Amino acid sequence: MDTSLLLLLATGAVVGAASGYLGSFMVLRRMSLVGDALSHVALPGMAIALALGFDPLAGALLALTLAVIGIWYLGERSEIYPEALVGVFFTASLAIGILVTPEPELLETLFGDLDRIGYWDGLVTMILALVVFVVARRISSKLLLGVISEDLASSTGANISSVNFVYLLLVGVVVALGVKFVGTLLMGALVIVPAVAAKNAAKSINLYYIMAASIGILSVLLGISIARMFSVPSGPAVVLVSIMFFVLSYILKARK
Amino acid sequence: MERGDILSVSQLKVSFDDHVILDGISFSVRRDGTFAVIGPNGAGKTVMFRAILGLIPFEGEVEWAADLRIGYVPQKLFVAKDIPLTVSEFLHLKENDPHQIATGLTSVGLGESESSDSHRGRRLLGTRLGALSGGELQRVLIAFALLGKPNVLLFDEPTSGIDISGEETVYSLINKLKKEKDLTIIFISHELEVVFQYADTVLCLNKEQVCYGPPRKVIDKASLDALYGKDAQVYRHTSDRGHHHHGH
């Protein structure tokens, strides 16, 4: 096995772990579709960065940060989550992204392209994903308590508004990182599906986190291997592997 | 704020959009006291709790003592059945020290040392939060509130009908806790009987302040009419049980 493939797999594994772990909160918060919609925002950001000659990762990060600030603001302002508005805004950004993205790059930005991940790319991605993971771990207690009851969390002195903001920022970063592996159309699935599968099987919250992160890792590793072996786009391969884990977990749950 | 008080509220007003929920509420809570808030449904009791906890915006002044440590027991907690969070993990969200958790559990009758209930306690620790019965969840929420050694406990409408531990009701548990620790209790209730039995001060709310003071002094025909309307059923109901606590 050559070193570049090894680096690719290692980077993918760290991104998969961070996605699965962050997704486990998103699923509990019943915000799954927001995670999915958020991933579409990366597209116009990448397109504009490509057109201006910047690194698409920087464009994706910028676009996602802006979107996260928007989501957070709406969530703070309104008692009811304005999900319809989020749906409208994000499908619009997907449509704009498809129009703006140069034709040769369109397919790979939509579905991921492993060949475009270089040595430095991989290293930066891995470090950022590790940072995301560590920060998420640190805020996890407050975050989860906020999911159970915001009042209860606030009564313990936690600033839930800023915890939520940091969490959404982390999701934005992980989506930007994962877009290279699975593309903007399917990145939402890498955040959500491992957590949904883990929720079917886990008996405790710690097991749930561990399973979500592990399924994230395995999906990326197996998906990348399959994509390499059969020369197919990595995005669909990774996501279909995670869906396979979901089906397995569902069957196991139903048999109990 | 006067010496010996732990909370002082002055001219509290809460409104959502243009709708005034509470207005002109002023009272203070004595340290180590037991303070009851009563009023009919929709009187704004929970809203007042959320305001003094700083969870919602308000006008007026809410001043807590500097050494305040709050434990809050909400009225309801809707935990989805499918959230894989066990009771033990829930308590660990607030406190890492296993010794403190054990102490909190013992206080609500779920401790390891209590022979009659320890088995039930251990089983509960591994149970999902969403699968608990109403009484069990209330116990766990009280244990959660007791973590971090609070000096004020806020109870939103503890249900006295629920058995906390064998014959213990939530109110006798509150009484027990007060004897053990330096603790101020503020609770919402609609049961006059309970207010007379346990509270040293009562605040009657019906969007505005109807009465405030020692229960036996301030709960009378006039304040009950203002709270529940004329011929209040709730009043006669408590009298029928032989508790002639009313002061006239």
Automatic annotation (TrEMBL), chain B:
PROSITE patterns: ABC_TRANSPORTER_2 (PS50893)
Pfam families tied to this protein: ABC_tran
Span of domain ABC transporter: 7-232
Record-level Gene Ontology MF annotations: ATP binding; ATP hydrolysis activity
Keyword Kinase: no
Keywords, ordered alphabetically: ATP-binding, Nucleotide-binding, Transport
SMART domains registered for this protein in UniProt: AAA
Keyword match Transport: yes
Family: Belongs to the ABC transporter superfamily.
UniProt protein name: ABC transporter domain-containing protein
